[in-house]
Each structure stands twice: as C-alpha cells, then as structure tokens.
Amino acid sequence: MAADASSSGELGVYACPVCKRLLRQEEGVLRCPTCSQVHPISEGIPDFILEELSRSKDPVLRRMTAIDRMARIYETRLWCPIVLNLFGGFHSPSLAQLISTVAQKVQSIEGRVLDVACGPGTYGRRIASPSKEVFGIYVSRGCSGKVQLTR
Fold first, then answer.
1. Which of 44, 73, 105, 146 is deepest in the core (most CB within 10 A)?
2. What average pLDDT does the structure give for the chain?
3. How many alpha carbons lie under 13 Å from residue 95 in its C-beta half-sphere?
C-alpha cells in the first residue's frame, strides 16, 4: 500500500493514542497539543508504535517484526489460498469473492473509510474511489497509510 501525503492536513484525522485528542500535523510529525506526544511521519505514514518492537517487553510485539518481511507475500497466488483454506476451511470463499463481498457492503459509503488490520491494502485498494478515501492502519509500518487511488 502506498502513502500519499499530497494534501498537507490529511493526517490530522488521527487522534492521540494517549489522551485521545486530535493530533496536529507539523513538519514530519503528528503532535498532540494536549499531552505533547509526538509521532513521526515517514513517507506519509505516521508511526504510533513508540518503542522498537524487537526490544519490546511484550513477546507478541517482538514477533511483529517479522510482519514487514511477510507482507510482500500476502497477496501472492500461493499465500492467499493456503491461508484462506487453513483458517476458513477447504470450502472457504476465494480472495476475489471476499473482495466482492466487502465492496458490496461499502459501495454506498462516501467519504473516509478506515481499514483496520489492513495488511497491504488488499481490500482498501479495491474499494477506494474518487468519492471514497480509504485509510489503512496496521501493526507493520510497511502496510499502513492512505490507499493510493488509481483514477
């Protein structure tokens, strides 16, 4: 998923994870005007994880460092069928069927859509349109950001 930071205030839609106030976009960071928490922006993507994951005390967060490496294969012909069949059963819907279902559910929505746990934007890239701006958020910095529209 590619980030597009063309409009200067678009990242101001985020709230502070600490005090829940709206963050203010400044040069290269999002800053909370209430608690002064600062979140760096790299390539248009805000980083809300303020610790180095490989050094985290939380074992689950330490394992998250592998996600960036795995993200490259999330949408390959090999990965999707295996994961869908493994977790959904042998007769689970295909990726194309899942995308069609998601697209139908949000087709009447206009404005901003948040794709939580977006991975590489599998659904968000396919539902974004000139009237539907999709933002994705994910634990891996390499998979989060604004979905780039192809017009």
1. 146
2. 78
3. 14
